[in-house]
Amino acid sequence: MTPDTTKAKAVLTQEFIARQAPGQTVNDIINQLPGVSFQNNDAFGSAGGKMSIRGFDNTRINQTFDGIPLNDSGNYALYSNQQLDPELIEQVNVNLGSTDVDSPTAAASGSTVNYRTRKPGEEFGVKLVGSTGDFKFFRIFGMVDTGVFTPWGTRAFFSASTSTNDTVFGNEDMPAFPAVAGVVAARPAITSRKGGINKQQYNAKIYQPIGDDGDFIALSGHYNQNRNNFFGSVGLRDLHNVASILYPISFRKTAMTVIMALLAAKPIRLP
Fold first, then answer.
1. Residues of the chain predicted below pLDDT 50
2. N or C terminus of the chain: which is more exposed, having fewer CB within 10 Å?
3. Cα(155)–Cα(218) distance, rounded to whole angstroms?
4. CB atoms near residue 125 (< 10 Å)
5. Residue-wise pLDDT tens digits, 66-88
6. In what order do the strands lie in the sheet with 62-65?
7. How far apart (Å, rounded) are the C-alpha atoms in residues 123 and 147?
8. In angstroms, what is the C-alpha Rg of the chain?
9. C-alpha triplet 162, 164, 170: angle, nearest 5°
């Protein structure tokens, strides 16, 4: 949805968010907006990533959660794997232009991303979402709405989620390799490469409406715990390292053969 404003802005609602992959980081969800580019480190949203909006990287983007700044206080980085469970996000507002002067940020000169949590339901309800997939991915999310429990309209919700999966890259033990004379030394087996990601999140919100004009008082709690075997992004500059690790004998032997052939080649005289 594009709001009626002179600035370039976009709004995503829970109706759209609910159709995306469960447990995915909100930064990957807004990746579908023009001008937003997010490179996820895995398909599950628990291993981080990099975001840019119209050329500004995440250190120049102001991201807030119910108005609270999420950028690192030291280097202004964003941690996409530590965002709120998407089932709890009511709306995401993305300012694609320059940051507003009254935005709660110290360094952002690019865009603003603000997401707002849902209000607790007026009726009692329970929601349960389960997901499973490759790399032993398993996630379960549960939420309870208390409904109105006081004469003044007070209501609340409580939620919890847990997500686990194996790391996507470099998650294979390396067998031992024998020595090849003049090419590569023997290497013992490496059995410590396998790693996993374990994420837990707990949220609660008590909501008290005031009057009939939309005013309210709310008290929220958020706890997020990540246990990551972090592998980062695999770039093209790592191609040689990746190839030599996966195929240490054939890769290095081929490279050595090419080098020796070039050294043995006779120079060509130009007329």
1. 236-253, 270
2. C
3. 10
4. 13
5. 888 888 877 788 888 889 999 99
6. 9-13, 89-95, 112-117, 62-65, 68-69
7. 4
8. 25
9. 155
Instruction: Answer yes or no: CATH 2.170.130.10 is held by domain 9-234.
Output: yes
Instruction: Kindly tell me the number of DSSP H helices and DSSP E strands found in the chain.
Output: 4, 13
Amino acid of residue 221: G
CA-wise closest residue to 36 among 91, 92, 90, 105: 92
Please name the residue that has the structure tokens 């490279």.
Answer: 255
At residue 256, the pLDDT reads 53
Backbone angle region of 81, left / alpha / beta, with phi > 0 → left and psi within -120 to 50 → alpha? alpha
Nearest to 58 by CA among 46, 41, 70: 70
Q: What is the pLDDT of residue 149?
A: 94
Contacts of 7 (CB under 8 A, 6+ apart): 95, 96, 97
CA pair distance 26, 41, nearest whole angstrom = 14
Integer Cα distance of 137 and 219 in angstroms: 33
**Residue type at 229?**
N
Q: What residues does each domain of the chain span?
A: 9-234, 236-271
Identify which of 62, 127, 118 has the alpha carbon closest to the alpha carbon of residue 89. 118
**DSSP 8-state secondary structure symbol assigned to residue 24:** -
pLDDT in tens, 101-135: 666 666 667 788 899 999 999 999 999 999 998 88
Answer for the pair 202, 160: CB distance below 8 angstroms, yes or no: yes
pLDDT at res. 192: 55
